[in-house]
Amino acid sequence: MAEADKERDAYFERDAYFGVHLFRKPSTRRAAHTIGVVRSLWLDEDDGHFPSEGPEPTAIVRSSASRRHLYWRLTHAVTVEWAVAMNRRLAAYSGGDSGKAGLATVLRVPGTMNYKRHPQVDPVTLEITGSGPWTPEVLEQAIPPEMAPSRSPGSTEPYDGPEMDLAPYLERVEVLAEVADGLGKKFQIVCPWSHEHSGGDRSGTRIGQREGGGLWFHCDHEHCRGRTWQDFRNRVLHTNRMTIDRPGYTGAPMEVTIHRG
Questions:
Q1: Residue 9, helix vs strand vs coil
Q2: pLDDT tens digit string along 62-103?
Q3: Which of 2, 44, 47, 172 has its Cβ near the most Cβ atoms within 10 Å?
């Protein structure tokens, strides 16, 4: 095959994805920039399977011969916080990928091709089932609640170590919101390992400080399983963030993150 033909084929054999949610700013996939409401739920089944007795999805996208993405149209808009929580419940109910429950998720576009297993190429197909739209209240009752993550022994025990300050760590990460917590302070942040999350999802990560002073870190994503406060501390202390200010530039602020060591 001529070199030009190889370059042409390499150009056209590209995977296509779309964002599952709308953003308020162009050229960004930050969860903090998403619209505050959504009118559908979504699920990447991954190696799992949505139970047949559950609410039938409105649309089914087959991303390959054995993988599906499911969507449930809602009767009215709901808050993104409720939608993400329900997406996680759907994933837990199905044994699917909870890492794709967040607002920054990208999924495959129907009508395109999946080149992930090249030279095997899978068409990405769409089926509209005709089911729905679903009322959020019905889905709330039909989908089992997500099991609370198990805590490590002593994670809520009184802290009797040296005095510690959470503020320096908050300055080194992107803080999305402060979250109510009966055991102390809790903040939703962008995980310093978010580039390893499925689809680059930036949700599902929290840090906090117990009433007694102890600091903690938790991330819901499988890629961060087993990572502790010490891992988080070492990561952010070796990370520098800076904003680039170019004369005459009037666009959105440009930030650079540098990981050292």
A1: helix
A2: 999 889 999 999 999 998 888 988 999 999 999 999 888 888
A3: 44
148 is written with which tokens? 């609370």
pTM, 2 dp: 0.57
Element (H, E) at 230: helix 229-237
Q: Are both 104 and 212 inside the same structural domain? A: no
Which ranges of 39-135 does DSSP label H, i.e. alpha helix? 80-94
Same domain assignment for residues 138 and 171:
no
**Cα(first)–Cα(last) distance of the chain, in Å?**
44
| Domain range for 193 | 167-259
C-alpha triplet 208, 212, 214: angle, nearest 5°: 45
Angle at 59 between CA 198 and CA 52, to 5 degrees: 90
Paired tokens of 81? 């916080």
H/E stretch holding 127 reads strand 125-128
